[in-house]
Amino acid sequence: MKASNKVVTQFLLAVSVIVMIIGYIQLNNSVLWGTEKVLEYMVVQGGMDSVQYNIILQGFIEQIKWSGSILLGLGGILFIACIALVLNKRSGLN
């Protein structure tokens, strides 16, 4: 493996790990961040009833969960692709 290919692969591995960590953090904190967003929304609206609050809260939580899932999935796919590339280069199966 050439030095430039090795640097690119290491960079892509680092990026994939960072993206996976960000996705995991979003998934882990989706309820907390969704609650904070709905409270900010309530301040702007001036209040709402409990049914409306729960619907908006669920929407914000789902939005954060979806973005976290997408980031975690894309980071995982990139990580697996980089590992497969490294293993192919080492085994000489070009």
Query: Which bin fits the share of residues in helices?
Result: over 70%
Q: Which structural class best describes the helix and strand composition? A: mainly alpha
Stretches where pLDDT is under 50 for at least 5 consecutive residues are none
Tally of separate helices:
3
Compute the gyration radius: what is it? 20 Å
Q: What sequence of helices (H) and strands (E) makes up the elements?
A: HHH
Percent of residues in beta strands? under 5%
Instruction: Report mean pLDDT, rounded to a whole number.
Output: 90
Distance between the termini: 11 Å
Biggest beta sheet summary = none
Number of β-strand runs: 0
Task: Provide the descriptors you would attach to this structure in a database record.
94 residues; mainly alpha; 3 helices
Task: Summarize the entry for a quick read.
With 94 residues, the protein is mostly helical. Helix content is 89%, strand content 0%.
Give a description of the structure:
The chain has 94 residues and is an all-alpha fold. The chain is 89% helix and 0% strand. The longest helix is centred in the C-terminal third of the chain and has 42 residues, at 50-91. The radius of gyration is 20 Å and the shape is rod-shaped. The model has no long low-confidence stretch (mean pLDDT 90).
Secondary structure blueprint with pairings:
Elements: H1 3-28, H2 30-45, H3 50-91
Helix pairs in contact: 1-3, 2-3
